[in-house]
Amino acid sequence: MTIHIKKCTLRDLHKLQEISYNTFHDTFKHQNAPENMDAYLEKAFNLKQLEKELSNTASQFFFVCFNHELAGYLKVNMDDAQSEEMGEGSLEIERIYIQHPFQKNGLGKYLLNSAIEIAMEHHKKKIWLGVWEKNENAIAFYKKNAFIQTGAHSFYMGDEEQIDLIMVKTLR
User: Fold this and answer.
1) Integer CA distances (angstroms), 153 to 18, 37, 97, 111, in order
2) Domain span at residue 33?
3) 49 φ, ψ to 5°?
4) What is the tens place of the pLDDT at every residue in 26-82?
5) Does the model's pTM come out above 0.70?
6) Catalytic residue among 40, 73, 97, 142, which?
7) Is residue 149 part of a domain?
8) Which end of the chain is more exposed for a tag (fewer CB within 10 A), N or C?
9) Is 110 an active-site residue?
């Protein structure tokens, strides 16, 4: 069993789009109306949007491979790339997505630890994320890893307003 991480570049744009679309769709399709899923997927993961995000030096994407197969990805944001105003001392974990066949292999924990390392390399004092209030498995995972809910914000899936819990972990 081998796990490795690779920073994404613009050359990875199409592969990033494919895994972004697939992991998000597979994770949330059963809990959302198809038209809202389609609207969100088109807005969030179109090539122009992903290229803009990949080109932003305050955002970073990383692929995680399991036994040399692309298994998922991580996206982190710093400074003004954060989706909420959390200050310069914070790093946002915007996405940790693992493809279904690779789940339960410790890859989420591996990516979380990678995000913590990135935050520490950049001298951040805390890491934070937004997680859908109905994503009980993810909430339990983050609580188990010392994240504390500090608030909530709106997230729009198409025209449906949903609530993301804001969870924060203070770093040493």
Assistant:
1) 27, 19, 20, 24
2) 3-124
3) -65, -45
4) 999 999 999 999 999 999 999 999 999 999 999 999 999 999 999 999 999 999 999
5) yes
6) 142
7) no
8) C
9) no
